[in-house]
Amino acid sequence: MRWRQVLTGVCDAFAGRFGRVEPRRAAAVFVTGLLADIEVKTCWQLAEQAGYGRPDAMQRLLYRAKWDADAVRDDVRQVVVDRLGDPDGVLVVDETGDLKKGVHTVGVQRQYTGTAGRIENAQVGVFLAYASRHGHTLIDRRVYLPKSWTDDRQRCEQSGVPDDVAFATRSELADDMITAAVKALVPARWVAADEAYGNNTRLRGELRKLRLGYVLAVSRDHLVPIDGGKTRCRADRLAADLPATAWTRRSAGNGSKGPRFYDWAWLADVGADGDPDDDGRHSLLIRRNNTTGELAFYRCWTPGPATLAQLVRVAGVRWAVEESFQAGKGQVGLDQHQVRRWTSWHRFTTLALAALAVLAICAADARTADRHSQPDMIELTVNEIRRLINVLLIQPARSIAYRLRWSNWRRRHQACAKRAHYARRLNLEFPP
Question: Which of 10, 250, 396, 399 is most open to solvent, judged by the fewest CB atoms within 10 Å of its CB?
Fold first, then answer.
């Protein structure tokens, strides 16, 4: 079956990164387990799903086994590019947060995260997605370390953060991933991102150096050079002064409920954003919700001529990263890692990207196969593909004796953890 070949092919792509056969097999089983229909995808559950008697092999894979997560990431990215690559591809950057308790998980602190929509105790990861006409998926990741971490080297050492890792803003992490993708010859012509990244002047400048066109959301108070760069005007003020004839209705792509139509206005010739000798084309794109009237603003740049239709398409493609986050968390447990250390986070997340790549490639193959053969059904979705993979490919162990052994193991392990927690709490309350 083609899907089995895809799963095997993705795992084989990075098999050579493991010097020993045990972690190599464990990695393949780990990726398969992330695709399995289990409630929580931690080392315990993945080991049980695979038929192991204990979680040691999975825990060793994330903690102590010798392998380079970044090298595996490179292999997974190449597999994605080989199947989904397109010269008109779009790199989409965004972040997502995982709510955490305590202070020991790498990168955790009280900070704003869009996952909760407010300031919470959370860990934030910055991700890069690749989107083309063939499909989309996540291809890179960075954990964000606040200054409260990078300024405390002892804390970093306890969590396994390398000594050469210094503080970097989320925009700098995004630039690092985009630059790495360009060096790896990922076929992309565009970059898209939300306001958190579009408002960053340095990131926009770095993208121009890479000769990547961009459609980056900016805030309503973003200052736009006009009159040949002599003056600057707020983006929302420019929108308010536009005549009715400046707006045109276009679709930003198809959504789950049909085409996503908005009203668009395009100021196709605004002043340079930085270097006045830049030979590219600067513009401001404005989107208006035709129901609520809500406005969104995009700072755009292209190394050569571009059309409104192209810019609108790229603005709409930005939602691919949101869909990838939803699939990553809902289908392969991207947010279910129960790890604290730097190395373990990168390893778990990399294997989750591999599992997500399997689903993205299978979805692309299904669209190609079903384009003319199933007019009375929708295309196979990532969610449905994972369900079918479980039914057709994954055979979990389900004997009663096996389940009872795992139940006993969990209860003993949890009893040990309970005793340790009680002892720690009593020592804090009544120190010797």
Answer: 399
